[in-house]
């Protein structure tokens, strides 16, 4: 029950939990509250335009009763002049948060990342890291100082490096999205990245492996496998000399790690990178000889069934035997889903002497071989998971019947 009395050091020390509140007898509305845990805070109760407001002055652990009284007097004076001190306090807090969050790095970590998690926990970390890594030179930059000119320069540099238009556009769009949220939240007034036009993407580009290139790629994969086995033998030899525990020798197993299985699976199923990385063993049906790409992982948001030919079926069976307790098909460490294959892939491509061939091109390779083998385009569309036939028509020129029809025109 609330009690009355002048708020002093003695009165505050004597305040009990059951008292709940001490109303000051000198300043109207000035009071102290005590929580069920004994924490005491000072407040000022006032009315403004018929509205009741309770204003927090401070905590007893931070200010003395005398200091709280002085603050209360000052605030009463402002209220008398018609000022809304609560709104001023909120505005001051907003200004503080704005100043704190103005740097891109802080904004991404404290504001944008939690927002991404609330929207889609599965992709939040990837999006956050993508912006932080691609635009690391902007991490300490004020949000309002990020200009379209320097992003345009960044785009030019990436194009000189030979980066794909789609990759560059994706990076710029993720940064645009972050800055647009900052505008929505009142952290900055505007940004001018919207003036940057996307690079025109060549969606007709199809890169697939020739028979000789495919042999080279498979050969360097085997060379890598053998090198890892030899290094393991050498390392264990030194560990044995030191009396240390030996690592497995890879005896009786086909694969030394995930690299060969994931590349062969990509070549023989045409799955997208994201679909491969999210694939679980529950999605692989060995008796029926097919795998399922769930709608949640597919770009088209539709579930599709992909048959497994004898080559990839054998690969997955042997890989499963090596990883009987893992949930994800392609793992890194102790049943942690693989997140990237970039480093080993780039080394393999370099060693195989493949020019302008990225991991996604394994999907083009799969589709191209099907079309050149005479598979109709609609079946290829279904296997690839294209939402319409337009995307699949890129492979039409590879169909043997088209070549034959062209020659027959002059026959």
UniProtKB/TrEMBL annotation:
GO terms for biological process: DNA integration; DNA recombination. GO terms for molecular function: DNA binding. InterPro entries: CB (IPR044068), DNA_brk_join_enz (IPR011010), Integrase-like_cat_sf (IPR013762), Integrase_catalytic (IPR002104), Integrase_DNA-bd_sf (IPR038488), Integrase_DNA_bind_dom (IPR025166), Integrase_recombinase_N (IPR010998), Phage_Integrase (IPR050808). SUPFAM superfamilies: DNA breaking-rejoining enzymes. Residues 204-408 form the Tyr recombinase domain. Gene3D superfamilies: 1.10.150.130, Integrase, DNA-binding domain, Intergrase catalytic core. It holds the Pfam family Arm-DNA-bind_3. It comes from the Bacteria. CDD domains: INT_Rci_Hp1_C. Keywords: DNA integration, DNA recombination, DNA-binding. Residues 106-183 form the Core-binding (CB) domain. Belongs to the 'phage' integrase family. This is Integrase. It comes from Vibrio breoganii.
